[in-house]
Amino acid sequence: MHLNADGLTLSHGEWALCADGVFGEGVHLVTGAVGSGKTTLASALAGIFEPTSGQISREGVLRFTLSMQFPEYHVTGFLVKDEIRSWHLPVGKTLKKSGLEGRENEKTLTLSRGQLKRLHLTCLLGNSWDAVILDEPFAGLDCREKKRICTAIEEGNHPLIIIFTHEQAVLPVADFIWEIEGNALVCRGSVPDAIPAWKGAPRYLTRAMEEGAHPENIRLQDATEALCRMHD
Amino acid sequence: MQDARLRIGATLLLSCAAFSSVFGAVLVALWWGIVARGERNLPGRHATAVIFGAIILVAGFTEMFGGDGISYGFRMTVVTLIAFWAFGRGREGDLMNTAVWAFGDRIGFDLGLTAEMAVSSLRRTEKDIRDIKNALKLKGSRGSVHDLIPLGLTLTIMQIYRAREQGITLATRGYRGGGTFTPSFLRSKTDNVAFFSSILIIMAVFVSFAGYL
């Protein structure tokens, strides 16, 4: 099962982004500065942005989805319970998972941006997909909720997850790291070998590596554990 | 046409001329064919079909029930083409520049600010509609008619929230009405010719009316 970007060129007027690579099973983290083209690439991989050249093939990927940065766009249910039902999920369990117990009769679009994002991601990750593309899933969430989403990503049963983010504090366990650099998608490789080559790595990772530690993954706890191992 | 004052003026004159008579509409269509060449800004096929489809539908009903539907359809089509030209050529700040130039720092500033906010909201709505439609498609669209309800609801509520946020931002920055703004305008060589020709068209329409009376 894989998602293949074959000689892709994406453009908006003068701006263009080149992407060439295969996203196999596992969790892929794609990072890049704001405005580097993460959303455009995520949309192209989801099939809702037409590439200027090249093609995207999805081998063995039958059910796939994209979580857009703004959760409002996905809303189809007037009340919170209707929204949960629109994802074919049980209301009570989903409310509990998203930390919104007792709010099933509230109007979905009157929830705050953060609450709506929580609800949307809980619903989306609560379904069964072959491939999930998440565009800035941590935007608008506090640290506790970011961790909750990381847990949902790690515990989910989605074979292929691609996360587009510029998050620098709370990240999930990842298998592969990609970066958008100089208008091109660059694969840094698999984790942990890719970590030293990752230019946009969070400060806690670079600091740990400066200290001589070798984190096994990209989370803060991986950096801390690597530092602890050094001092044992 | 780069000068916003001339473009807005020409839009008003041409719209009046096109809607007033078939003769005026023919002249404006000629103007559109010559002056607006390369700046027509026609929307995508789908939007074009919806907009002109609606005009044809109304024209058809009018014709069926004894009205002059063909004339109405032609005149409205030309007015719509002028609207595409005017709206698509607009740059951020055009309405503010023109309103302050015409009505001064008090009423002009308020009018300009309101118009700029309305236009930027319209432009953002285009992107919102595209994104909502894509999100619904990914979620499992139940058909374009069924999708209209969530699309309309989300769009309306998002606009209300944005309006409230804009209002709070303006109030926080101390806005109470009016302000200081120095209008500036660009002008190309063809601007005067294009504007002057729109004056000739409206005059020709008046003359034809006078002759008729």
Automatic annotation (TrEMBL), chain A:
As one GO molecular function, the record gives: ATP hydrolysis activity
Keyword set includes Nucleotide-binding: yes
InterPro entries listed in its UniProt record:
AAA+_ATPase (IPR003593), ABC_transporter-like_ATP-bd (IPR003439), ECF_ABC_transporter_ATP-bd (IPR050095), P-loop_NTPase (IPR027417)
Q: Does the keyword Amino-acid biosynthesis apply?
A: no
- Taxonomy, superkingdom: Archaea
ABC transporter domain: residues covered = 3-207
Q: Which SUPFAM superfamilies has this protein been placed in?
A: P-loop containing nucleoside triphosphate hydrolases (SSF52540)
Q: Which UniProt keywords apply?
A: ATP-binding, Nucleotide-binding, Transport
PANTHER family noted in UniProt:
ABC TRANSPORTER I FAMILY MEMBER 11, CHLOROPLASTIC, HEAVY METAL TRANSPORTER
Q: What is this protein called?
A: ATP-binding cassette domain-containing protein
Q: Which organism is it from?
A: Methanogenium marinum
Automatic annotation (TrEMBL), chain B:
Where do transmembrane segments lie in this chain? 12-35, 47-66, 193-212
Source organism superkingdom? Archaea
Keyword annotations for this protein, in alphabetical order, are: Membrane, Transmembrane, Transmembrane helix
What's the protein name? Cobalt transport protein
